[in-house]
Write a structure and sequence with these properties.
62% helix; mainly alpha; 422 residues; single chain
Length: 422
C-alpha cells in the first residue's frame, strides 16, 4: 500500500547522467582545450598511411596527374614524425618550455612512453605483416628529442635546417655499411626501425618541436607554415626536375643518393621537400579548422585523436584477415588483391568516431598515459582526455599545455616480391 514510487527527479537522473557523460566526451573532442587542426592532420596521415599500405602506388611525378596518389608515399610517415615534434613541444610547455621539476617530470614520462612504443612496435613486427613498422624508430626519435626541449623556436628552426642538409650524408653512409646484410644486421634494423633512419628523421621532429615553440595556435604561425612549407616543397620539386636525380638510392652513388627526392630515399631533396609538405599540411589543417569545415571533418579528427590505436588496429586487422584468408599475413600482393582499403578506412572512421564521442580517449593512448603516470608520479599538468601516439594529451593552448604525438605510419615502396620496404 505504501510502496515507494520513483519521483520525477529519480526518473530523469539516469538520462541526465548519460547526457552529462556524452557532453564531457563531446567537450573532450571539440572543446577549447583541444587543437582540432592537429587532430585533423593526424587523421589525414592515418588515412594516407592506409593508402600507402593497401595500394600499389606509382612514384609521384608532379607533371603527371595520374601519379598524384603517390603523395601519400613517404609523406604520411614524415607528417607523423613532424606532428610528434609538435606534440613533444606541447607536452613540455608549448611556447614557454617548462622548468625545474615540471620539465623533469614531463621528460621522464616521455622516456616511459618511448619505451612502451618500442615494445609495442616489436610486438607488431612479430605479427608477420609486410609492413615496415615505424614505432621502434618513433621511440628513438622521442628519446633524441628530449634534450632539445629547452630550446627556443628560432634555435630549433635553424637546427632543423642544418640537420636537413647534413644528416642525409651520415644516414646514407651508415646505410651502405655491409653490416646490414647479415642476420644480425636485419635484427638491428628492425629493432632500430632503420627503414626510417632516426639519424635524418630527427629533422622532422625538431621542425615540429619548433612549431610548438613558435605557437601552433597563432594565425601568423599557421600562415607561415603554409607559405614556408609550400615554398620548400616546390623548391625541392623544381631542383629534382632540373637535375634529373635518380628515383632510388640502390643504383646511385653516395653523392647522387644524398640528393634524391623520391619517397624513402633519404636524400636532401626528400628531407626538404617532404618536410616542407608536412609543414604546409599542418598549417592548412590548422587554418581549415578555424572554419565550419571543422565539423565536416569530425570523423577524421576522431581518428587523429587516437592515432596509436588506429595504427595498431589496422596492423592487427591486416594480420587477422590475411591469416584467415591466406594462412599467411606476409602475402602483400595477395592481400592487396582483396581491395581492403575502403573497408579499413570506413571501419576506422566509424569506430574512432563512436569511441571518441562515447568513451573518450583511445584505449592505447589511455593505457600508455596511465603507465607513464604510474611509473613517474608527479603533479598532473596535462589536460584531461586527449590522445596521441605518445599518450600525453593532444590538446593545448599556446601557454604551457599539452598534446600527444601521433604514429607515424610506415609507407614504403616495394622492395622484394612480397614485402613493404622503404
Amino acid at each position: 500500500m505504501n510502496a515507494v514510487r520513483s519521483t520525477p527527479a529519480d526518473e530523469v537522473a539516469p538520462p541526465a547522467a548519460t547526457r552529462e557523460w556524452l557532453a564531457s566526451r563531446w567537450e573532450r573532442l571539440n572543446g577549447p582545450a583541444r587543437i582540432p587542426g592537429v587532430d585533423l592532420a593526424r587523421g589525414l596521415a592515418v588515412i594516407g598511411m592506409l593508402a600507402a599500405h593497401l595500394f600499389t602506388i606509382d612514384r609521384l611525378v608532379w607533371a603527371d596527374p595520374s601519379t598524384w596518389a603517390g603523395v601519400v608515399q613517404g609523406r604520411s610517415s614524415i607528417l607523423f614524425a613532424t606532428l610528434a615534434g609538435v606534440s613533444i613541444g606541447l607536452v613540455t610547455g608549448a611556447r614557454t618550455p617548462y622548468e625545474g621539476e615540471r620539465m623533469s617530470t614531463a621528460r621522464k614520462r616521455l622516456v616511459v612512453r618511448a619505451s612502451l612504443l618500442w615494445v609495442l612496435g616489436i610486438l607488431l613486427i612479430a605479427t608477420g605483416t609486410p609492413i615496415v613498422v615505424i614505432l621502434p624508430a618513433y621511440a628513438i626519435l622521442f628519446l633524441l628529442a628530449i634534450p632539445l626541449t629547452r630550446l627556443t623556436a628560432r634555435t630549433l628552426f635553424v637546427l632543423a635546417g642544418a640537420l636537413a642538409l647534413a644528416t642525409p650524408v651520415l644516414a646514407e653512409s651508415i646505410d651502405r655499411l655491409p653490416f646490414w646484410d647479415g642476420d644480425v644486421g636485419e635484427i638491428v634494423e628492425m629493432a632500430l626501425g632503420w627503414r626510417y633512419p632516426f639519424v635524418s628523421w630527427i629533422t622532422f621532429v625538431v621542425a615540429g618541436l619548433a612549431i610548438a615553440r613558435a605557437g601552433v595556435r597563432r594565425t601568423r604561425v599557421q600562415v607561415w607554415l603554409v607559405v614556408a612549407g609550400g615554398s620548400l616543397a616546390v623548391l625541392s620539386a623544381v631542383i629534382d626536375v632540373a637535375t634529373g636525380s635518380k628515383s632510388d638510392s640502390r643504383s646511385a652513388t653516395l653523392w647522387e643518393s644524398i640528393w634524391l627526392a623520391g619517397a624513402h630515399t633519404g636524400g636532401i631533396l626528400e628531407i626538404v621537400g617532404s618536410g616542407g609538405f608536412a609543414l604546409a599540411a599542418v598549417g592548412i589543417c590548422l587554418l581549415v579548422c578555424r572554419t565550419f569545415v571543422v565539423w565536416i571533418v569530425l570523423p577524421l579528427r576522431a581518428v587523429g585523436s587516437m592515432p596509436l590505436t588506429a595504427y595498431v588496429a589496422q596492423v592487427l586487422a591486416w594480420a587477422v584477415v590475411a591469416w584467415l584468408v591466406f594462412g599467411d599475413p606476409g602475402r602483400l600482393f595477395a592481400f592487396r588483391s582483396l581491395e581492403p582499403f575502403p573497408a579499413f578506412t570506413i571501419g576506422i572512421l566509424i569506430a574512432c568516431t563512436i569511441w571518441a564521442l562515447t568513451l573518450g580517449r583511445g584505449p592505447l593512448e589511455w593505457v600508455t598515459d596511465q603507465v607513464a603516470r604510474f611509473i613517474v608520479p608527479g603533479a598532473s599538468f596535462w589536460t584531461a582526455g586527449s590522445p596521441g601516439l605518445a599518450s600525453p594529451p593532444a590538446s593545448s593552448t599556446d601557454a604551457p599545455s599539452t598534446a600527444a604525438a601521433a604514429p607515424p605510419a610506415p609507407s614504403a615502396p616495394e622492395a622484394g616480391p612480397d614485402r613493404l620496404e622503404r
